[in-house]
Design a protein that fits this description.
Number of strands: 22
Structural class: alpha/beta
Oligomer: single chain
Bound molecules: phosphoenolpyruvate, magnesium ion
Largest sheet: 8 strands, mixed
Length: about 750
C-alpha cells in the first residue's frame, strides 16, 4: 500500500460500507476484508472487549470463520491481550516467538509469521484490538502502524455508535453510565445534589474522516495558532481572572502548545485521513492510554496537561473556546474541573452553583477560599474524575464525608434527598431565628458576628442575621489576585464592605500572610517552620510600607464612619505599639492632607500567641479591643500543627489548660472594661461556643453558616448555671472536659 493514500482510500470505503443497509455483522465482516486488502495483509481480525474483560474475535478475514465469537482471550493474555492491556501497538516480524504468544488452534493461524496489533481506543480506554497478519517475516512500516491506528479509531467510533455490534455485547466499563463513587478531600463542607457541568466543556467530534486533507491541515494550523494566542493572552491578562495555580497550569500549556512532538503527531494523524478534530482526539486517545498506564506522578501530570491542552484545542477548532460560565446552566449545577482559579469560579452565577468537584486543589488553594465564602461544598483531589463524568450526569457531593457519587442509584439518591430535606428544615428553623436576638434564658446577651474576607461574603450578613463582621480577613483579597491590589482597588473594596455592613460593625484585620497563606505573586520563603516564621505582623512590621498602604486604604474607605482594625499574630505588647504607631502616623497624614477622617478609630489585636496572655495588664492598657484567635492559639498553646490531620484530635480546646487560659484572658479584660471577641473556628461550634459563654465570653465571631446553630444553643442556655457548673472543672486533670460539657447540655435540654 502507499502509506499516505492508502488509509484515506480505506476510510472513504469504510464510510461507504457504513451507509449500506446491511446487518451489523456483515458490515464488520466487510470492513475486515477491506482493511486486509488495503493493507496487503493476509489476515485482518477485530477483537472486542466483552463484559468480564475478555477479548472476543468478532470478525476476521483470513483466520477460520468458525472461530468468530468463539475465540476469547483474557485482557493481558496472548499478543492480542497484551495490546489490549497496555493500549499500545505491537509490531512483530516474528509473532510466534514473542513471549506473550498464545496458540489458539481453532483460528488456524499457524502459517502467519508477522503481526501488527493496535488497540481500539476511545477516551483512552481499550475497546478492543485490531490486528493484521502476514505469512512473511516483516516489520510493518511506521506509516502502516499510523494508518492502522487511524482505522482503529474510526472503528471505535463505529462500535460505540452501535452501528457494528450490539452494544449490550461489549464491555460495560466503556460506558460512562454506571454509578461511580470516589473519595476525595473536602475543602468546603456541605451536601449538594445536582447535575454535572464541565467547566471546560468537551467537544464531541462528529466528523472523523476528512473530505479534503489540505483543508483539514490548514484548519489544524489555524486552531493551534489560536490556541497559542489565547494562552498568551490569558497569561498577559492584567485583571484577576487568573491566579496562583491556574497561572502555573497555563505556563505548562504554553510550553506544551509549542511541543514539536505533539504537533507532529497531530499533523501525521491529519495526513492519515482524519479531520482536524478527529486528529486531536486520536492523539488524545494515545495520551490518555499512556496516562492510565503511568504510575510516575510527574509524568502523569505532564500527560494530564497534554490532555487538557487537546481539549482546549478541540474547543478552538469547534469555535467554543469559552468555559461553561456563560452557558445556560441547570439550576442545580455541580461544576467539574481539573483545577480552577478563584475568579473563574466567581464568573459563574452563584445562585446556580450547588457544588464543585476538582481533580486537584488544596485547602489553601484560592478556589477553596472562594468556595467557602460562597458556602459551596467543594471536594478536591479526586483523581481521574474527569474521565468518569459526563455532562448532565446526576451528582451528589457529600462534603461532610468527602464522598462523591456520580450517577447514584435510586436508593442513594433517595437517602440524600432525605438528608437534604432534613437540612432544609434545620435551615428554615435558623432562618426563622434570623432576627431574634441571641439572649440566654437568664437574660445574658451574646453578640453573634460573622467572619468574612471577600465581597461575596457580605450577603450572608443579611441571610444569617449576623450583628456585624467580627473578623474581616483582608489577606484573602490579596491571595486571590494575581498581583498586588492597587490602593484605589483596596479603597473601593473596603468601602463596599462598610457599605454592605450598613452601619453594623466590621473589624478589619490587617494582612495575615505567611505560613499557609501565600501570595501567588510573592517569592516563596522556604522556611523550615512557616507557622513559626516570618508571617503576619512580623512581616508587615518589617515591610511597614505594605502595612501603611493598607491602613491608608482603610482610613480612606472609612471616612466619616467608624473604623475597627486589628493586627494578627502579635506576640508582645511592644510589637502592638509599633503597629499602632503606624496607624497614628497615617492618621496624621489624613489630617495633613485634609482628608475626611473616620468618625472613630479603634485599634485592637488578635490574641493568638500565648505569650500575649502573660502581658495582659500592659496589653489591656494599650489595646482598644482584643480578638482571640483560637485556631492559632491552639497550635501554639499545645505545640500542635493546626494543619496536621494526624494531630487533629490529639488535644482538645475543651480541656482544663486551654479553658483556664481563656478564663484568665476574659476575666482580665472584663475587669478593665476592654471588649473581647473570640473569632476562631471554636466560636462556630455550638458545644465550644457554649463553653465560651460559660467562661464569660459575650461576643463570638464565626463562619456565617454557624450563626443559626450557635444562636439556637444560646437561646436554650442558662449562662449562670453553666458558669457555676464549669467552676469546678478547671482544676481537673482530665484530657478533655468535652463529655462533661456535653452531659450538661443534655441535662439542660440545650441543642448542640
Ligand atoms: C485564628 O487563628 O483563630 C484566626 C481567627 O485567624 P486565622 O484562622 O485567619 O489564622
Ligand atoms: Mg490566626
Amino acid at each position: 500500500m502507499t502509506a499516505t493514500a492508502g488509509p484515506r482510500l480505506l476510510l472513504k470505503r469504510m464510510r461507504e460500507i457504513m451507509s449500506e443497509r446491511i446487518a451489523a455483522q456483515s458490515r464488520l465482516d466487510k470492513i475486515v476484508t477491506l482493511i486486509a486488502a488495503n493493507m496487503v495483509a493476509e489476515v485482518c481480525s477485530v477483537y472486542l472487549l466483552r463484559p468480564g474483560r475478555q477479548l472476543e474475535l468478532f470478525a476476521t478475514e483470513g483466520l477460520n470463520k468458525t472461530a468468530v465469537h468463539k475465540t476469547r482471550l483474557k485482557i493481558g493474555e496472548g499478543i492480542i491481550g497484551d495490546v489490549g492491556l497496555n493500549a499500545r501497538p505491537l509490531n512483530l516480524p516474528d509473532a510466534p516467538s514473542h513471549p506473550s504468544f498464545m496458540y489458539k488452534p481453532e483460528t488456524g493461524e499457524d502459517p502467519y509469521q508477522s503481526m501488527l496489533g493496535v488497540p481500539i481506543l476511545r477516551g483512552g480506554r481499550t475497546l478492543g484490538v485490531l490486528a493484521v497478519q502476514n505469512r512473511t517475516h516483516r516489520l510493518y512500516g511506521e506509516e502502516e502502524v499510523e494508518a492502522l491506528q487511524t482505522v482503529a479509531m474510526v472503528l471505535a467510533e463505529m462500535v460505540v455508535s452501535g452501528q457494528l455490534v450490539d452494544l449490550a455485547e461489549v464491555d460495560e466499563g466503556l460506558k460512562r453510565d454506571r454509578p461511580w463513587r470516589a473519595h476525595g478531600t473536602a475543602f468546603c463542607e456541605g451536601i449538594a445534589m445536582g447535575r454535572a457541568v464541565l467547566h471546560e466543556p468537551r467537544v464531541k467530534v462528529e466528523k472523523l474522516i476528512a473530505d479534503d486533507i489540505a483543508e483539514e491541515r490548514a484548519k489544524l494550523d489555524r486552531g493551534v495558532a489560536e490556541l497559542r494566542a489565547a494562552i498568551d493572552a490569558m497569561l498577559a491578562a492584567e485583571d484577576d481572572v487568573i491566579a496562583g495555580e491556574t497561572r502555573d497550569v497555563l505556563e505548562a500549556y504554553r510550553m506544551f502548545a509549542n511541543d514539536r512532538g505533539w504537533l507532529q503527531r497531530l499533523r501525521d494523524a491529519v495526513n492519515s485521513g482524519l479531520t482536524a478534530e478527529a486528529a486531536v482526539e486520536r492523539v488524545q486517545n494515545d495520551t490518555r492510554a499512556r496516562m492510565m498506564r503511568q504510575t510516575d506522578s510527574l509524568i502523569r501530570e505532564r500527560l494530564h496537561d497534554f490532555d487538557d491542552l487537546a481539549n482546549r484545542l478541540l474547543r478552538h477548532l469547534a469555535g467554543k473556546a469559552d468555559t461553561a460560565a456563560h452557558e445556560a446552566l441547570p439550576a442545580d449545577t455541580i461544576l467539574f474541573a481539573r483545577s480552577m482559579g478563584p475568579a473563574e469560579l466567581l464568573d459563574y452565577d452563584r445562585t446556580k452553583i450547588r457544588g464543585v468537584i476538582l481533580e486537584e486543589g488544596s485547602p489553601t488553594s484560592h478556589v477553596s477560599i472562594v468556595a467557602r465564602a460562597l458556602d459551596i461544598p467543594l471536594i478536591g483531589r479526586i483523581d481521574g474524575v474527569l474521565d468518569q463524568v459526563e455532562a448532565n450526569d446526576w451528582v451528589i457531593v457529600d462534603g461532610d464525608t468527602s464522598d462523591l457519587h456520580l450517577r447514584p442509584t435510586h436508593d442513594v439518591r433517595e437517602a440524600y434527598r432525605h438528608k437534604l430535606a432534613l437540612r432544609a428544615q434545620r435551615q428554615a428553623t435558623f432562618a426563622a431565628m434570623r432576627t431574634r436576638p441571641a439572649i440566654t434564658k437568664d437574660g445574658e446577651v451574646v453578640r453573634l458576628l460573622m467572619n468574612a474576607g471577600l465581597i461575596v461574603d457580605l450577603p450572608h450578613m443579611e441571610e444569617t442575621g449576623a450583628e456585624g463582621i467580627g473578623l474581616f480577613r483582608t489577606e484573602l483579597q490579596f491571595m486571590i489576585a494575581h498581583e498586588m491590589p492597587r490602593l484605589k482597588n483596596l479603597i473601593e473594596l473596603y468601602s463596599s464592605v462598610l457599605d454592605g455592613a450598613n452601619g453594623k460593625p466590621v473589624v478589619f484585620r490587617t494582612l495575615d500572610l505567611g505560613g499557609d497563606k501565600v501570595l501567588p505573586y510573592a517569592r516563596p520563603l522556604n522556611e523550615e517552620n512557616p507557622a513559626l516564621g516570618w508571617r503576619a505582623i512580623r512581616m508587615t512590621l518589617d515591610r511597614p510600607a505594605l502595612l501603611r498602604y493598607q491602613i491608608r486604604a482603610l482610613l480612606a474607605a472609612a471616612k466619616g464612619r467608624d473604623l475597627d482594625l486589628m493586627f494578627p499574630l502579635v506576640a508582645e505588647v511592644a510589637e502592638f505599639k509599633l503597629a499602632r504607631d503606624l496607624v497614628n502616623r497615617e492618621l496624621d497624614r489624613v489630617a495633613r492632607i485634609k482628608q475626611r477622617p473616620p468618625r472613630k478609630v479603634r485599634v485592637g489585636t488578635m490574641l493568638e500567641v500565648p505569650s500575649l496572655g502573660f502581658q495582659l495588664p500592659a496589653l489591656l492598657a494599650t489595646a482598644d479591643f482584643i480578638s482571640v484567635g483560637s485556631n492559632d492559639l491552639m497550635q501554639f498553646f499545645f505545640a500542635v500543627d493546626r494543619g496536621n490531620p494526624r494531630l487533629g484530635s490529639r488535644y482538645d480546646l475543651l480541656s482544663p489548660p486551654m479553658l483556664s487560659f481563656l478564663k484568665t484572658v476574659i476575666d482580665a479584660a472584663k475587669a478593665r472594661g476592654v471588649p473581647v471577641t473570640l473569632c476562631g473556628e471554636m466560636a462556630g461550634r455550638p458545644l465550644e461556643a457554649m463553653a465560651l459563654i460559660g467562661l464569660g465570653f459575650r461576643s463570638l465571631s464565626m463562619a456565617p453558616a454557624s450563626i443559626g446553630p450557635v444562636k439556637q444553643m444560646v437561646i436554650g442556655l442558662n449562662a449562670g448555671r453553666l458558669s457555676a457548673f464549669m467552676a469546678d472543672l478547671f482544676g481537673r486533670s482530665d484530657h478533655s472536659l468535652r463529655d462533661a460539657l456535653r452531659q450538661f447540655a443534655h441535662s439542660e435540654n440545650i441543642t448542640i
